[in-house]
Amino acid sequence: MVAAILAPSMTARIKKSKKDFDFSFENQAVDWKKYAVQLVDEAYEFIESISTVQHGTDVPVFGVAGPTRARERRRH
Questions:
Q1: Which helix (H) or strand (E) holds 13?
Q2: What is the DSSP secondary-structure string of 15-67?
């Protein structure tokens, strides 16, 4: 998510080209807004993969309890 927030500002942070005595290079053009959307989608996908929610769990309508502690005390 942090990378998605920072992605639109990367155009100003990364130099388009650099030249020196021995070498020169030019970075590829990147659509940072499109990349930010992709990063948000990936973040939500990863969050969904660690979810512990179980869908469709069965909850009993009623249950039968064993003897209470009061009854156990009377037996002794």
A1: helix 10-13
A2: -SEEE-SS-EEEPPP--HHHHHHHHHHHHHHHHHHT----TT----S------
pLDDT digits (tens, 9 = 90+) for 4-62: 888 888 877 777 777 777 777 777 788 888 989 999 999 998 888 886 666 666 666 77
Please tell me the distance from the alpha carbon of residue 40 to that of residue 47, in angstroms, as a whole number: 11
- What is this structure's pTM? 0.50
3-state secondary structure of 76: coil
Enter the tokens of residue 52: 């512990």
The C-alpha atoms of residue 41 and residue 27 are separated, in whole angstroms, by 25
> Contact 8/36 with Cβ under 8 angstroms?
yes
